[in-house]
Amino acid sequence: MAKRKASAAVEGGQQQAAKQQRKQRKQQVDAVEGDGPSSSGAVVIAGTAGGWKNKEKVLLLSSRGITYRFRHLMLDLGQLLPHGKRDAKLDTKSERGVINEVADMKGCTSVLYFEARKHKDLYLWLAKAPGGPSAKFHVTNVHTLEELKLSGNHLQGSRPVLSFDKNFDEQPHLQVLKEMLTQVGPRACLNPIKMFAGSFGGPVIYENPGYVSPNTIRAMLKRQQQGKYVSKVQSREGRKAHVAAHPLPRDELGDVFK
Q1: Rounded to whole angstroms, what are the CA distances from 172 to 70, 81, 97, 167, 180?
Q2: Distance between start and end Cα atoms, the chain
Q3: Where are the domains of the chain?
Q4: Buried b (16+ CB within 10 A) or exposed e, 167-176
Q5: 113 - beta bridge partners?
C-alpha cells in the first residue's frame, strides 16, 4: 500500500513538473511572437539563437494535362528546393484562387504553379500566398536533367544563392572562374507575361508589350502555309489559262513517221 502511494506521488510530481515546463515554454513562445515578424507561414521556435526562425515553404503543383517533360522539369526544380512541398494536380484551370487555400493547408507562403495548355504550352505562376504579388511566365526551350545529362545537384539541401556582379564580365581571371562553373540544374527560358498585385489575380502592375501568345504564332504559321497552297493553286490555274490562250502551232512534220 505504501509503495502504491509512493508511486502515485512520484507520478503526480512528474506530471506537475511537465505541466510547469509546458507553461514556461508557452510563455517563451508568446514572448517571442510579440517581438518577431508576423508574416504568415513563419514558425516561431523557442530556444534558437535569435528566438525566431523562418520556416517558409514553397508549394509546387501542376494542372491536369501536363506532359512528362514538363512534369520532369517540375521535379527537377523540386530537387533544387529542399523546402518545397508537392501536391496533387489541380483539377480546375479557371479558379486559381483555390491554390491559396491549398498553400494555407500545406503551411506554404510561396507557390510555383505549372499550368499546361493544349499539351503543348507551359505557363509558370510565381505567387506569394495569400496576399500577392504574383507573376505569370511562358516557359519555352525546356531541357530536363536527364536530357542534358548534367552532373546533378552537388549541394542538395544547402539552399545556395549565386549572383555575379559586373566584375565577372570585366576582369579576365573572374571571367575564367565564371566559365569554370558547372551547371547542375534544368534549363528553361521564362518569358514574362503579366504581374499582378494579388495572388493569382488582382490589378495588373506590369504587362509585357512584346509578348505574343503561342496560339497567335501557330495561327500565323498556319495562314502562311495556307497562303503557299493558295498561291500554288493559283499558279496552276494560271498555267492552264496561259496554255489555253496560247496554243502551240501545228507541226508540219509531226505526221511523217505515222
Answers
A1: 38, 33, 49, 9, 13
A2: 139
A3: 58-151+187-215
A4: eeeeeeeeee
A5: 61, 125
Length reported for the chain: 258
Q: Which set of grid coordinates corresponds to residue 252? A: 508540219
Per DSSP bridges, beta strands 134-143 and 187-198 are antiparallel
Give me the residue label for grid cell 495588373.
204
CA nearest neighbour of 85 among 99, 98, 70, 96: 99
Q: In terms of Cα–Cα distance, which of 135, 141, 123 is closest to 187? A: 141
Find cell 499546361 and name the residue: 116
Tens place of pLDDT per residue across the chain (258 aa):
554 555 555 456 666 766 676 666 666 545 444 444 444 445 444 445 556 677 788 999 998 888 889 998 998 888 888 788 888 888 776 778 788 888 888 888 899 999 998 888 999 999 998 887 999 999 999 988 888 776 666 666 666 667 788 888 888 888 888 877 777 778 889 999 999 998 888 899 999 999 999 889 888 888 888 777 888 888 888 888 888 888 888 877 777 776
Q: For residue 128, which of 108, 143, 145, 150 has the smallest C-alpha distance? A: 108
CATH code linked to domain 58-151+187-215: 3.40.50.10480
